Amino acid sequence: MSKYKADDVIKRFQHVGSALYQRGLENSHSGNLSVKVGNRLLITRRGSQLGFLSKEDIVETGLEKDDSGIALASSEVGVHRAIYRETNALAIVHTHQIAATALSFLRDEIIPIDVEGGYILRKIPVVTCKEGSGSKEMEEKIPQALKDYKIIMLKGHGAFAIGDHLEEAWHYSETLQNIANIIFMVKVMGGDIEQLQERDLDAW
Amino acid sequence: MNAWMGKNTLVDLSSGSVKINDTDEELASKFLGGRGFGGKILFDRLDSGIDPLCEENLIIVAVGPLTGGPAPTPGRFSASTKSPLTGTITDSNCGGDWGPEFKRTGYDYLVIAERAPQPTYITIIDGEIELYDASDLWGLKTTDTTKALREEHGDDVEVLTIGPAGENKVRFATAMTGHSALGRGGLGAVFGSKNLKAVVVKGKEKISYADKERLVFVNREAVRNINQSPITSKAYPQFGTAVLMNVINEAGMLPKNNFRNSDIVDEVENVSGEAIREQILDGQTGCWGCMIRCKRDTSLKNESGEGPEYETDWALGPNCGNYDLNKITQANYLCNEYGLDTISAGSTIAAAMELSEEGVIDYGVTFGDSDQVVSLIEKIAKREGIGKELAEGSRRMTEKFDRPELSMHVKGQELPAYDPRGAQGQGLCYATSNRGACHLRGGYLVGAEILGAPEMINRFGHTGKASLAMEEQDVGAVYDSLTICRFSHYAVSNPMVARLLSAAIGERIDTEKLIQIGERVHNLERLFNIREGFTSDDDTLPERLLTEPLKAGPAEGHVVELEPMIEEYYETRGWDGEGRPTQKKANELGLEEEYEQIQS
Questions:
Q1: Is the backbone peptide bond immediately before B420 cis, with ω within 30 degrees of 0?
Q2: Which CATH code is given to the segment(s) B7-202?
Q3: Is the N or the C terminus of chain B less surrounded, counting Cβ atoms within 10 Å?
């Protein structure tokens, strides 16, 4: 039985999901959101449309163990559980943003050239998984990367961002989109991205 | 005939004669096998209007081109007859190990005709067919019968048998193989009416395929999809089909107390898939060649068995106001042993409870009396006391007391565990199912309306549901004719099934042609029912679901708005306003002769 599907929590999901869709970070059916509540997990339903979430699109299931919610939960619930297990995340936003995904094919890490991007994220590692959505390989590699970063890119797939709440993870997701768009535009205008990215990143 | 065995057999129980024939290639091409074969043979050979329990009725047991081969979930077989519960054509589809073993005896189907002069069982061992006296087995429960027949014929035979309920012609009796059932529609009663106790099989024939390498390759892709789908790789394997108890309860459409309400009830947790796993599960098991393994080996303090599965859990549980998992499981074991369909048994008990509470007749049973649920199973199977009336099914029982509206049935068959007031398309599926209320023959729109499989649609909407119902019905007929399990449909696409079949038989079957075969099977069954006198008036739902809005829960305020969906459904099917296939549709499907027969 659902214990934590309160109306205010549903509204947070709807607010963030709608914003992600309208800003182009998701296509009609991509991505997923979750929050950790006690020893439970609230996660978007498999195949749900993040831009148009209803109460029934938010599924409650176990943080560690499966229960009947697994019949409805996002197929990437295993990755979300692994992230909660391995990091101190309380919320996860997974987006399929286009520019950052395109960049992930070409780089092992995305280094911002804009001031705000550099200030907030500094750099974003690109994780490579040979196996597809919801795979064990993703469950192993992504949480490890998120131990040191607030957001990571999965090569050719999308971004996983974590935070204390959905809004924070959303913020990192939007920031990454700006970073990738700016890199793309500067490149198109003939800018030298590598030169602009020269900065001391050793601390990261 | 690649993928088919090329032979079939007819056993005349009256004379004891056995005929072996070649399987007609046109029959195989047009109807595939399983349910398709059953429908066609029954249409051709049965006279209309016969009593389903008379000797003229037939039982067609059939497998299909993907049974027992390198295909997803290929362990099933089908049995068809005219139903003693509904008077419609019916087919039941069963898992376990019997189907693949039967196919390896070398036959595509078995026609069982007439009535034996005394209790009899059939053996088909390595192609040889013999009839034996079953007088010593008559009265035995299903497990004891199986044990006795294995002692006689070897541990490696597979046994399909009825229990005492079938012998006593309970109208919703099953035939069982292990813990798998030819469940719905009363096939067990037809076995009983023919004095047929069991069919024992063992085979060693090889199945040949046109392009086995390609078949294996496509099957590997299908299995990979099954192993990646959360429903088939996580939900069903871990919690069995009862994983749906909490899901459907929270959607406000798990019926309680004979569909009097379907609002969210906390006690459902006590009988959920999670509770089964925590309290009584010994291990998960599955049918022949299946990787989903949704079946549950369970045990109570002094007994063990299989289940409960979702429909059983609900029918003997919340639908009777019963939230005692041990009692539900006990009643389930008894249904398996006596050979009773758990859905119809539970729903008929629920109707008896409502009759009692309404003061119509004092059956001494009330909602929530879990002990009564258990004790009534034996009474029904033996037709003892009030069991004699319950053994007729809820429609006949409530009609006897002039309260037919208290039977939750369509065409005489009791509804499964989804209140369609919370999923309008599912209501259309129930109403138009050829074998009476059924989430499988009628189509499983709960998948799209509640589970989001393949995509979530508005469950309270109506327009467009007809097309979805039609596709679900036709694709389902394909699966039942191939014969593979419906659960693989969560993960395996229709084009993939078409590729599997093409590789198996050596002829290119595209998706459109594949689904048209399902449409042909569905239309033929419809013509059979029309010949039996069924009309559009029978495409309806219990009055309660059409007129009494749900009082609470997520589906509060809803009834099923059936009429506009039915009209759209007939149009979509290419039928006339009375729900009869038109000549044009019949011609399109190659059912000209059947259509002409209906006209005459």
A1: no
A2: 3.60.9.10
A3: C
Indicate if the alpha-carbon torsion angle B87, B91, B97, B98 is positive or negative: positive
Confidence of residue B55 (pLDDT cuts 50, 70, 90): very high
pLDDT of residue B547 exceeding 70, the answer is yes
Q: What is the mean pLDDT of residues B189-199?
A: 98
Give chain B's contact residues with A (Cβ, < 8 Å).
Answer: 228-231, 234-235, 238-239, 243-247, 249-251, 264, 266, 268-269, 272-274, 451-456, 554
Asked whether the beta carbons of residue A67 and residue B234 sit closer than 8 angstroms, the reply is: no
Distances from the Cα of B389 to the Cαs of A87, B348, B363, B394, B571, in angstroms?
62, 10, 10, 9, 40
Asked if the Cβ–Cβ distance from B250 to A73 is below 8 Å, we say no
CA-nearest of A44, A35, A105, A28 to A76 is: A44
Q: The complex's ipTM?
A: 0.82
Question: Could you say which architecture CATH assigns to the domain B240-407?
Answer: Orthogonal Bundle (1.10)
The mean pLDDT value for B75-96 works out to 98
Determine, for residues B235 and A75 on separate chains, whether the beta-carbon distance falls below 8 Å: no
- Of 1.10.150.20, 2.40.50.180, 1.10.599.10, 3.60.15.10, which CATH number belongs to B420-599? 1.10.599.10
Quick check: pTM over 0.90?
A: yes
CB of B435 within 8 A of CB of B441? yes
For chain B, the average pLDDT equals 97
Strand A109-110 and strand A32-37: pairing? unpaired
- Please check the confidence at residue A203 and state whether its pLDDT lies above 70: no
Q: Which has the closest alpha carbon to B533: B40, B41, B44, B48?
A: B48
Q: How confident is residue B148, by pLDDT bands cut at 50, 70 and 90? A: very high
**Is there a catalytic annotation at residue A140?**
no
Chain A residues inside the 8 Å CB shell of B245: 68
Break chain A into its structural domains and give their ranges: 7-196
Token pair recorded at residue B296: 């549950």
Q: Where in chain B is the domain with CATH 1.10.569.10?
A: 240-407
Indicate where chain B has its CATH 3.60.9.10 domain(s).
7-202
Cα–Cα distance, B459 to B422 (Å, whole number) = 7
Residues of chain B with CATH 1.10.599.10: 420-599
pLDDT at B363: 87
A2 has a pLDDT exceeding 90: no
Q: Is the pLDDT of residue A1 over 80?
A: no
Is the CATH number of domain A7-196 3.40.50.10610?
A: no
**pLDDT value of residue A200:** 54
pLDDT for position B490: 92
Tokens 């059983």, residue?
B312
**Residue B473 and residue B442 in contact, taking contact as beta carbons nearer than 8 Å:** yes
Q: b/e string for A10-20 if b means 16 or more Cβ within 10 A?
A: bebbbebbbbb
Query: Above 80 in pLDDT, residue B70?
Result: yes
Q: Name residues whose C-beta falls within 8 Å of residue A97's C-beta, 6 or more positions apart in sequence.
A: A24, A25, A26, A158, A159, A173, A176, A177, A180
CB atoms within 10 A of CB B533: 10
pLDDT(A133) > 90: no
